[in-house]
């Protein structure tokens, strides 16, 4: 288990009540499970499909590299990594 | 073609920018850009491109000016409520730089009108306000071989990317799925589209002048915390738009 920084954007911020947090975990999937229950409201249904996969409109990056939402269980994290979670935005 | 004395004075502060100069100014004069949307992003993009001397500017928006536009669309006037935005913007831009050729298009861009329209412009700026229009524009630009400068905002956050037509990645590679439709309106404090629009205009100018630009990267600007996050984009082989041209 290592500690990494997780940054969230837009609707996730509003629901969680923060833009940045530090969480401990071994894989990106473990960290996202913790993220979902770490804020003001539980965002599990917002973040995950019924089968546990990360909803496909969210973009995940680990240290600025795009991740495959279907493979988060296989992506291990290192201490000091930065995970960003954001959806597309459309306002103009 | 040499610049007139008036042009030399008008553009004097950008002619001394390394990478622009007389050669870059000539490129700007010969360039044509289509700006999709005449709202908080589009108006700013157009104002900077007209001021910079981009030769021909097309801009499409079907909307009429509404009171709720005026917290961020600062080139319009309260007395003009109810009037067609592209007409109002054309008047503003003509006053700003009479030498620029303006082509206001009061229409909603769709898959049918985009293909012939894109043939007339060298570059496209996406300043629309909904996902359907953005993905349609992305697809049309990939098919037409036009670079797309993407800008979008949500509250005090913004996203900026340059989508190159050949070799990808395209917008659909980054965002393969639309998010669920939000209830209500998108939050939009004025400075957020103002800043992202200015950055889109900077990318357009750099692309035209042949300067290094954001190709292949998406930058998220967090104005709430004064931070930026740059992501290297990857092409998705299975992308329905740029992966296999006949799908999507």
Care to describe what's here?
The complex is a heterodimer of chains A (92) and B (248). In chain A, 22% of the residues lie in helices and 26% in strands. Chain A is an alpha+beta fold. Chain A has a single domain, classed as Ubiquitin-like (UB roll) (Roll), CATH 3.10.20.30. Chain A has a five-stranded mixed beta sheet with strand order 2-1-5-3-4. The radius of gyration of chain A is 12 Å and the shape is globular. The model of chain A has no long low-confidence stretch (mean pLDDT 94). Chain B has an eight-stranded mixed beta sheet, sandwiched between helices. Chain B has helices spanning 5-10, 12-15, 21-30, 40-52, 85-96, 111-118, 131-144, 171-174, 191-209, and strands at 32-36, 56-60, 101-105, 123-126, 147-154, 157-163, 217-222, 227-232. Chain B has one domain: Rossmann fold. Chain B is an alpha/beta fold and 248 residues long. Chain B starts with a helix and ends in a 16-residue tail after the last strand. In chain B, β7 and β8 (227-232) form a beta hairpin. The chains are: A alpha+beta (92), B alpha/beta (248). The interface between A and B is medium-sized, with 21 and 42 residues.
* Oligomeric description of these chains: heterodimer
Number of strands of chain A: 5
Helix content of chain A: 10-25%
Task: Give the largest interface.
Answer: A-B, 21 and 42 residues
Helical content of chain B stands at 25-40%
The rounded distance between the terminal residues' Cα atoms of chain B is 43 Å
Number of helical segments with 4 or more residues of chain A: 3
CATH architecture of chain A: Roll
Please give the number of β-strands of chain B. Answer: 8
Largest sheet of chain B: 8 strands, mixed
CATH topology of chain A: Ubiquitin-like (UB roll)
